[in-house]
Design a protein that fits this description.
The chain is mainly alpha-helical. The protein is built from three helices and no strands.
Length: 68
């Protein structure tokens, strides 16, 4: 699976989880939904995504060790 697909899965999961938590636990969780949305918009303009950096530092490094 490509890095872009992984980021989309993570973003979608965060949005659905925060919407569920906002509905059943506390409306304050909707702020997390807004944060994810703002981050998606910001990354489309700046071409930089924090989650991409995190995944490259962890998952890609782990894959390199698995291949060796």
């Amino acid at each position: 699976m490509s890095l872009e697909h992984t980021i989309r899965i993570i973003a979608g999961t965060f949005i659905l989880a925060s919407l569920s938590l906002g509905w059943w636990v506390s409306p304050w969780w909707f702020l997390f939904t807004a944060f994810v949305g703002v981050n998606l918009i910001q990354s489309s303009f700046t071409k930089w995504c924090l989650m991409e950096d995190i995944l490259r530092a962890t998952v890609c490094r782990r894959r390199a060790h698995d291949d060796a």
